[in-house]
Amino acid sequence: MEGLSYVADAPFVVIDLVNLKSVDVDVKSRTAWVEGGATLGELQYRIAEKSGTLGFPTGTCHTVGVGGYFSGGGHGPLSRKYGLAADNIVDARLINVNGEILDRKSMGEDLFWAIRGGGGGGSFGIVFDWKLKLVHVPSTVTVFTVTKAPQQNATQIVHRWQYIAPKLSDDTFILATIPRAEASEGQRSIQVTFRALFLGRSDMLVSLMEKQFPELRLVKQDCIEMSWIWSVVYFAQFTTEPTEILLDRTASTKSNFKVKSDYVKEPISEFVFKGMGPMFDEYEGRFAYMNLVPYGARMDENPETETPFPHRAGNIYSIMYATGQDEEITHSEKYINWMRRLHRYMTSFVSKSPREAYVNYRDLDIGVNDKDETNYEQSSIWGFKYYKKNFEKLVKVKSLIDPQNFFKHQQSIPSTV
Ligand SMILES: Cc1cc2nc3c(=O)[nH]c(=O)nc-3n(C[C@H](O)[C@H](O)[C@H](O)COP(=O)(O)OP(=O)(O)OC[C@H]3O[C@@H](n4cnc5c(N)ncnc54)[C@H](O)[C@@H]3O)c2cc1C
Ligand SMILES: *[C@@H]1O[C@H](CO)[C@@H](O)[C@H](O)[C@H]1NC(C)=O
């Protein structure tokens, strides 16, 4: 998200993982080895080649790499049922600073813990491949995309969503996206789009929504039944392309964007969503949107210290703020500043002390390492936001595996040696 894998202001080395993309699926043991440079799309496609009822909890964007995604935890449409991607990793082979290849046994449980959510990318070594425990998915799932305009009570409904989406059964995932309202001239309001994955048939989903989320007014015509692998294509925002699109690393239009994140512990009042309307209506809000990713269910079960990713029980959803820009990159600052203002506006309504952030939505605004030397005090500012107390253990692991701080970037885990 901040280009940390290929930008630095000192001499640096780029290790190109483009050819490390093989995925070796073993249906019988329900496991797979995936190489560190594969994409999420390649992973899902190769699993589906072997089985229509096995999958893996990945995110929605098929061009994201497993290397970064797994090392930050990784949440997505299956996380309410199966937890993070990192929760389903059972082994890995890591190349350390001395060029030695370590597996789970030889690296030890602390380092194996650290690379599953500690933003491992660029801190501990290079993950050559990961061993995954695959999860069961039904052969037919149901999806829908429903948009509510301002005059369809968008703010009321997204306000209700906060009480419902994190409490639904673990088969149901409803993502809420808030952009400015279309043709919003003078409307000064937001709209909301709900995108859902249901691990079952549409009849069941419709009756579930009638009972649990009647405000949505979901009807059967809104729902599409499809195979699991098609739902992966659907969430990657394609409709008519063959599933091979998942292997295409350049299929999505290339765009520049910047993100920030938050965690929400208590439902936010409706007036706060109302207040976003005039902000989104400003010129600089035109490329912006917020993704509200519901947690709860399985996400509440692991203790905070089980992996470095600490945002478990007590968090009802995460927010990703994103903004793009117009053609001229020199204008990007004004859009980013607008998003910083939205983030400030949210301060009282989100997690506090620390104001938590999700490392996969990497954000250099929340602090960076000292330029010349790694300074624990300074790093702990952003470190506690991403990892809470787990940051201390990450620093210990880093100091043992890479004391000289060979693997580093603006927000790499510091060595205190
Ligand atoms: C369009 C889009 C959608 C997204 N959707 C989601 C989502 O649904 N859920 C979610 O949790 N996140 C999501 N993300 C965030 C994503 O998980 C992070 O941006 C992640 O860091 C991307 O990993 P990468 O390997 O593609 O990126 P890179 O920039 O290549 O890598 C990120 C970091 O990891 C390091 N790294 C990469 N591979 C390895 C390896 N094999 N060994 C060691 N270090 C490595 C890099 O050096 C770098 O420091 C999304 C991102 C985008 C761009
Ligand atoms: C909006 O909400 C009002 C009051 O709660 C309700 O009467 C109306 O039917 C709703 N409109 C839509 C389109 O859902």
Bound molecules: flavin-adenine dinucleotide, 2-acetamido-2-deoxy-beta-D-glucopyranose
Q: CATH topology of the domain at 141-227 and 251-359, which one?
A: Vanillyl-alcohol Oxidase, Chain A, domain 3
Helical segment count: 12
Major sheet: 7 strands, antiparallel
How would you spell out the order of helices and strands? EEHEHHEEHHEEEHEEHEHEHEEHHH
Please give the order of strands in the largest beta sheet.
11-8-10-9-13-14-12
User: Into which percentage range does the β-strand content fall?
Assistant: 15-25%
Form type:
globular
Helical/strand content category: alpha+beta
Distance between the termini: 29 Å
CATH architecture descriptor of the domain at 141-227 and 251-359: 3-Layer(aba) Sandwich
Protein name: FAD-binding PCMH-type domain-containing protein
Keywords: FAD, Flavoprotein, Glycoprotein, Nucleotide-binding, Oxidoreductase, Signal
Pfam families: BBE (PF08031), FAD_binding_4 (PF01565)
GO molecular function, one term: FAD binding
Any descriptors?
417 residues, binds 2-acetamido-2-deoxy-beta-D-glucopyranose, globular, five-stranded antiparallel beta sheet, binds flavin-adenine dinucleotide, Vanillyl-alcohol Oxidase, Chain A, domain 3, alpha+beta, 14 strands, 12 helices
Characterise this structure:
By secondary structure, the chain is of the alpha+beta class. The chain has a domain at 141-227 and 251-359: Vanillyl-alcohol Oxidase, Chain A, domain 3 (3-Layer(aba) Sandwich). 26% of the residues lie in helices and 19% in strands. It contains 12 helices and 14 strands. It has helices at 40-50, 66-71, 79-82, 104-107, 109-114, 154-164, 202-212, 228-235, 270-280, 332-345, 376-387, 390-401, and strands at 23-26, 31-35, 54-55, 89-95, 101-102, 126-133, 135-136, 141-148, 172-179, 192-198, 223-226, 258-264, 288-294, 317-323. The chain has a 7-stranded antiparallel sheet with strand order 11-8-10-9-13-14-12. The chain has a 5-stranded antiparallel sheet with strand order 1-2-6-4-5. Helix 1 runs antiparallel to helix 8 (228-235). It binds flavin-adenine dinucleotide and 2-acetamido-2-deoxy-beta-D-glucopyranose (NAG). Belongs to the oxygen-dependent FAD-linked oxidoreductase family. GO terms for molecular function: FAD binding; oxidoreductase activity. This is FAD-binding PCMH-type domain-containing protein.
